[in-house]
Amino acid sequence: MSTEIHPFRIDIPQAELDALRARLAATRWPEPLPGAEWSRGVPVDHLRGLAEYWADGFDWRLAERRLNAFPQFITEIDGQPIHFAHVRSPEPDALPLIMTHSWPNSIAEFLEVIGPLTDPRAHGGEPSRAFHVVAPSLPGFGFSRFPQPPDPAPWTAARVARTWAQLMARLGYRRYGAHGNDAGAVISPELAVADGDHLVGVHITGGVGIPTGDPAELAGLTGEEREQVQGLVDMLAGAGGSGYAPYLAARPLTLGYGFLDSPVAQLAYLVERFTEFDGWPQDGTAPAEPIGRDALLTNASLYWFTGTGASSSWTYYDGAAGMPIDQDKVPTGVSHGGSDAIRRIAERRNDIAHWSNRSSGSHMVAMAAPEGLVEDIREFFGALAARA
Question: What GO terms describe the biological role, i.e. biological process, of this protein (predicted)?
């Protein structure tokens, strides 16, 4: 097996941009359905406007340059090409930090946080809180395309964590931290199991401490706290009402045909997921989306140009979606953890060294509230350094 690491640069041929614009122009648009604007899905006028901007206003070359400002590489681990950004800090004593993006997202999720994390001196921060950032594309996402034929073994969260441990060892990092959001928050605690001797701590945006249904988990909570916890559980179980999760867990390829053949089908799905995660409007009115359209379209373009809209669904089909595992091998920090009741549940089976209940306005925290996330990551790992 090759262990070589090859430099990588995003360079989408102009012919692919022209083909995207032609497909967008040839879209067959459905008639609007009766009812409140957002009650039956993403409204036609909203999506048409976004698609028109994608074709004639969005500057992919600018997005490409922003991504290429970060050194990127490709290596092969367990037969799988792994694409990753690797940005070393100018601070020699910086802590290596592997950052795992969410679903349905890409390393574009971290565009606004990599600079402040790697070079705090240039962003008004304390140089001692610097990180060497490694941000891989999850297998089957973006430029970490599945080989053909694909490996039939499932890409579970634990398998990805073992792959990340090999990646960090290959880069020469024997002591490092981890951060993750959404799918990344599921995978990052698995690193404690896979590589606890080298991992110093896990920072996630949330999910730990969410009850699984065992009544014992609610022991010691007041009636009011139980109601708060149950409300959160019900909200997560409803997932906005679209039913996307069980469908992806059962038949992801069926949707994949549309994702690969129609950029508007891919875009509609991403718009719905981002909007649903941030609170689908129950009254049918237009939602207040905190993530700008250029950020959304950078992500949509990466999915389209790499043809990974279908393959990214392995997170549900292979059981990698859900909540983070409990682990106490390394300390855990949480930035959007929720109430004190959730924290107390989490503390029973985790070494919670940091807990905050920040507000970002979006499930995609690094895109919506990058400054707060950077601050929280610094606080957590700074506290671990003080512990030592």
Answer: epoxide metabolic process
Q: Any idea where the domains of the chain sit in the sequence? A: 6-26+37-387
Catalytic residue chosen out of the listed positions 176, 303, 316, 336: 316
Catalytic entry in 119, 182, 318, 376: 182
Q: Which CATH number fits domain 6-26+37-387: 1.10.760.10, 3.40.50.2300, 3.40.50.1820, 3.20.20.480?
A: 3.40.50.1820
- Residue 341's contacts (CB-CB under 8 Å, 6 or more residues apart) are 221, 225, 226, 228, 229
In sequence order, what are the beta bridge partners of 75? 5, 82
Q: What tens digit of pLDDT does each residue of 83-133 get?
A: 999 999 999 999 999 999 999 999 999 999 999 999 999 999 999 999 999
| Cβ-proximal residues to 213 (8 Å cutoff; 6+ apart), any chain | none
Tokens of 267: 């875009």
Through-space distance between the first and last CA atoms of the chain, rounded to whole angstroms? 38
Is 182 marked active-site? yes
316 in active site: yes
pTM of the full predicted structure?
0.95
83 is a catalytic site residue: no
In tens, the pLDDT along 161-197 reads 999 999 999 999 999 999 999 999 999 999 999 999 9
